């Protein structure tokens, strides 16, 4: 039987493979959630570089948040990454949730990014 970590890696790879198949050249909005923070990047897979990034560890957010591990923090990070992506000229992305289910903090981040101007 596979370990929990192997199962998570397999799930993340499966999601990423499906996303790259339907991306049509759009950058991907990749999310990573830890027990204490949440991190997000807008990645151009064709060029292999990060176009915009945000996390709960950013100086501006860190002072205004109570904790980096709640829905309010995820929403703030989603709004911030949307602003940075729009400044970089990105409006359409594909959402890469990795091995995480679309629920709670991941869902809050996605909805805030949509409100901030990204479409996916």
From TrEMBL:
GO terms for molecular function: 5S rRNA binding; structural constituent of ribosome. GO terms for biological process: translation. Gene3D superfamilies: 3.30.420.100. Keywords: Ribonucleoprotein, Ribosomal protein, RNA-binding, rRNA-binding. CDD domains: Ribosomal_L18_L5e (cd00432). GO terms for cellular component: cytosolic large ribosomal subunit. This is one of the proteins that bind and probably mediate the attachment of the 5S RNA into the large ribosomal subunit, where it forms part of the central protuberance. Belongs to the universal ribosomal protein uL18 family. Part of the 50S ribosomal subunit; part of the 5S rRNA/L5/L18/L25 subcomplex. Contacts the 5S and 23S rRNAs. This is Large ribosomal subunit protein uL18. It comes from Allorhizobium terrae. The gene is rplR.
């Amino acid at each position: 039987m596979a370990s929990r970590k192997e199962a998570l890696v397999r799930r993340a790879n499966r999601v990423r493979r499906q996303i790259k198949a339907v991306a049509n050249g759009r950058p991907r909005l990749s999310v990573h959630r830890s027990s204490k923070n949440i991190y997000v990047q807008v990645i151009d897979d064709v060029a292999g570089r990060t176009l915009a990034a945000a996390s709960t560890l950013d100086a501006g957010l860190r002072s205004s948040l109570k904790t980096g591990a709640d829905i309010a923090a995820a929403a703030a990070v989603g709004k911030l990454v949307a602003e940075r992506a729009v400044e970089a000229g990105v409006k359409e992305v594909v959402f890469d949730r990795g091995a995480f289910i679309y629920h709670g903090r991941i869902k809050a981040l996605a909805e805030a990014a949509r409100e901030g101007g990204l479409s996916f």
